[in-house]
Amino acid sequence: MAGSVNKVILVGNLGRDPETRNTQSGSKIVNLAIATSDTWNDRNSGERRERTEWHRVVIFNERVGEVAERYLRKGRKVYIEGELRTRKWTDQQGVEKYTTEVVIDRFRGNLVLLDGQRSGGDDGGYNDGGYNDGGSNFGGQQAGPANRGGNNGGMGGGNGWDSSAGHDQGLDDEIPF
What we know:
By secondary structure, the protein is mainly β. It is built from 1 helix and 8 strands, in the order ββββαββββ.
């Protein structure tokens, strides 16, 4: 058994369009703001209450970042799988600060588009789907960029998108979650 596990799974909505920036070496980094909400009835007043948590998500994986840039817009529902990282940085006044983020790293992590909402742009013919560059394939329906390179864990060696990975072509049933 492993000594520890650092894995985060979020299902939420984008609070703004993805923000992309490039490093000096030319690598692409995509930042997302994901909102998760919890609702309940207050025991004393009977009123409906809601609490929203905001999560910073940073995508270092080039392919996942391309999918996020192309298909994600404010309001889209997404499934994110990554790991928590806290980094230290210094602001303009010289004060050290800490930020905790969910990171989709170069060879680990998952991004799945969960809704069919479109904001007017070309969706490339994809209905729902996701991109997996790690071990498991959690995806929407068969369509979309689902798993690159088969079962090699996203470590290269594939020759493109395999949209049928992990999908039994003989089953028409959808499994409700």
